[in-house]
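Input sequence (131 aa), recorded before submission:
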Amino acid sequence: MGRGRHSTLRDSGVIHFHMGGKTHILMPGDSLEIPAGVAHYFWNESAEEAHTIQRFYPALEIDGFFKCYFAFARNGMLNSKGLPSLLRMSRPMLKYQNEIRTVNPPWAVQKAVFTVLAPVAEMLGYKKTYE
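Predicted structure, token format:
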């Protein structure tokens, strides 16, 4: 949140974006502009792989967040819903708070939880970022 993003679907698959109370279904070649500060999320309902090209502007350090998240995936650190634990995610979410935030709960609640968990995560050896 807080940054504009333009997402373009290419090659294959279908992606669903939810934003502003409405679900947008993007087919190959479709695009969607997401205004700065608008909460949104996306998913692939199909077993078919989908590919997107997403541009973030201003980009800030968003690439670091996604490198971190993909490292979690590669190393088996995600649950069955594709999410890392709150403890593991606490340090990266504080580090990348200007780039990305989850939709719920409100940021003030998230920041309070991450701030409490981050020192514990650090003691356990969890990093702010992963490659």
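Checked by second reader. The two ends are 23 Å apart (CA to CA).
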